[in-house]
Amino acid sequence: xxxxxxxxxxxxxxxxxxxxxxxxxxxxxxxxxxxxxxxxxxxxxxxxxxxxxxxxxxxxxxxxxxxxxxxxxxxxxxxxxxxxxxxxxxxxxxxxxxxxxxxxxxxxxxxxxxxxxx
Length: 118
Known about the structure:
Helix content: 40-55%
Radius of gyration: 17 Å
Number of strands: 2
Number of domains: 2
Distance between the termini: 47 Å
């Protein structure tokens, strides 16, 4: 059952009605514990490939500024593969082909890096 928040994220008219209805029917609350319970990884995280995909059509209230820029700057400074997609925060809904293309490209980059190919 969609919440008021999820319905607000996809207001009527933002997507074709059938796509909006299917997406909202699958939305579930995220447990708060996912933000509060620490996990402990020993060395594994350092071996995982990283990348950053920034959705540039996301809109933020003026008083917040751009809360994503600091994360994007950190990813670029760390040398992560960085891509931008002119879509809102949920690219799987608004630009599924665009995000699929980027994810395939990043998977190829990670695979080549794992094989030592530059």
